[in-house]
Amino acid sequence: MKLLRGRESPGVGPGASRRARVFAFVLMATGAVVFAVGAVLVLLHPWGAADAAVIAAVLGGPALYVVGDLVHRRTSTGRVAVSRVLALGCLGVFALIALALPALVLAALVLAVLLLLALGASGWFRPPSVNVDE
Questions:
Q1: CA 40 to chain CA mean position, Å
Q2: Which of the residues 9, 62, 75, 80 has an alpha carbon 20 to 30 A from that of 97?
Q3: pLDDT tops 80 at residue 66
Q4: Are strands 129-131 and 79-81 parallel, antiparallel or unpaired?
Q5: Does this model's pTM top 0.85?
Q6: First-to-final CA distance of the chain
């Protein structure tokens, strides 16, 4: 697979790269659908305690999307965005405290993480990325 700098990625053929990109897009689409289900569950009982289904949908949807984005960026550019890894870490911390939070508060925390990712992608600030090819 040719990367942006014209180097070949070691051990990755064109077929493997194509499969990884398809896998990444499937993960991102699945994450969006799961998060939409989570939004409906939150709207049904916004101030109720978050149960396992709400936690799985509200945290799992964005986590699937971010993992898919990481796979896509890795196969396309050979780099891993540190901001995506930090976002996954934040979602993991939210999973630890999710049972103590109302569903709407959990969804607001996830929205704050996704908003920071969007602001970073739009150029408001530049989070670092790590070159994993070398």
A1: 20
A2: 80
A3: yes
A4: antiparallel
A5: no
A6: 15
